[in-house]
Amino acid sequence: MTETIFLLRLVLAAILGAIIGFEREKAHRPAGLRTHIIVCVSACLVTMIGLNSKDSDPMRIAANVLTGIGFIGAGTIIASSGSVKGVTTAASIFSVAGIGIAVAAGFYLIAIFTTILIFVVLWLRKIEKRDNSFLWD
Fold it and tell me: Which residues pair with 85 in a beta bridge?
């Protein structure tokens, strides 16, 4: 793999992470634009290194990336006064790590589709906040 392909994959990871991070930022969540970009780019970088190293198992590297992201996600979950907040943001952080791994592996269309799908799911928050009880009666 050439350095140009490495760089283009990192840029794509940054763009896809930014799309999801933008939604989290706009919703005033604890992890926003910069966090999602950094997670996506970092997951992409580490995975590309693993894929191109003769001395490593890329699947073990990807698994360890996701384990590490679990700790970051746990830090966004806040339990206060009997309610838990930040689970969706933790899930979005985990998702952008997966998107970064997909970009690193060359699964561009899947990474783009997943980004759109997650963005739409996060957008559903606006529908949840409306009183749509008449839809279910």
Answer: 78
What stretches in the chain show pLDDT beneath 50? 137
Report the domain count for the chain: 1
Range of the domain at 35: 3-129
Per-residue pLDDT reduced to its tens digit, 117-128: 999 999 887 776
Query: Tell me, what's the pLDDT at 131?
Result: 60
- Whether this model's pTM surpasses 0.85: yes
Assess if residue 103 is contained within a domain: yes
In a domain, 136, yes or no: no
Examine residue 46 and state whether it is found in any structural domain, yes or no: yes
Check residue 106 and report its DSSP letter. T
